[in-house]
Amino acid sequence: MQINEDRDWESHYQANEMIWDHGEASPGLVDHLAANLNASLGQALIPGCGHGHDARALARAGWSVTGLDIAPSSVPLAKRLAEEEHLEIDYRVGDFLRDEPHQTFDLVFEHTLFCAIPPARRDDYVQALLRWLKPGGLYLAVNYMITDDNGEPPFSTTTTELDTRLGGSFELLHRWTPRSYESREGKELMNEWKMKS
Ligand SMILES: C[S@@+](CC[C@H](N)C(=O)[O-])C[C@H]1O[C@@H](n2cnc3c(N)ncnc32)[C@H](O)[C@@H]1O
Fold it and tell me: Fewer CB under 10 Å: which end of the chain, C or N?
């Protein structure tokens, strides 16, 4: 199914066709949280959170978490999964690229959202990061690094593009190849950025 418009994300949830959803948090995020147990915590936003597998991992690690997704039908299951673990997560329906933030965050974490954004809208994505983050905030991403574009998500992502788009406003703190779901082995890159003051 081709996804050209924002509303199509909703149709995927309604049709229960979420090929990106592995039913568990990104292995790279899980490892990162385990390796940084003493890191300072705060308020985290997960745009494009889907069913909230990463949101729950961050909440378990002690972050105060808000999950944002453009598809309303992603929310009921996300909420139920959080409730089953007695985790308090603020799930909201909204457009990361267009909305004015109801608050700003210490951390924005994302997992396969950048690759879902058409290249023509990626400047808006960077502007959105600057709006939703507190000054000096952290931006941690599990990026899906593919170069074969066929005009629908996932769109291509390269390190050159990330550095060009983000390098003006963010300092790259750390870049590494994470452990991945088997089907994405070697295709993911984690990038941790800090907003420049
Ligand atoms: C490829 S899925 C990834 C979902 C989740 N991060 C995961 O890895 O399981 C992309 C998600 O981003 C959401 N999305 C797409 N554009 C968005 C936007 N502008 N604002 C908020 N969410 C968006 C979609 O509804 C979908 O849930």
Answer: C
Which pTM does this prediction carry? 0.96
DSSP letter at 120 equals G
CA atoms within 13 A on the CB side of 32: 23
What ranges do the domains of the chain cover?
A: 7-195
**Ligand 1 mutation target, pool 113, 155, 157, 188, most atoms within 8 A of CB:** 113
**pLDDT tens digit sequence for 157-195:** 999 999 999 999 999 999 999 999 999 999 999 999 999
- Is the distance from the beta carbon of residue 99 to the nearest atom of ligand 1 less than 6 Å? no
Whole-angstrom Cα distance, residue 73 to residue 197? 37
Task: Return the H-helix or E-strand segment holding 84.
Answer: helix 75-84
State which residues of the chain have pLDDT below 50: 1-4
Q: Which fold has domain 7-195?
A: Rossmann fold (3.40.50)
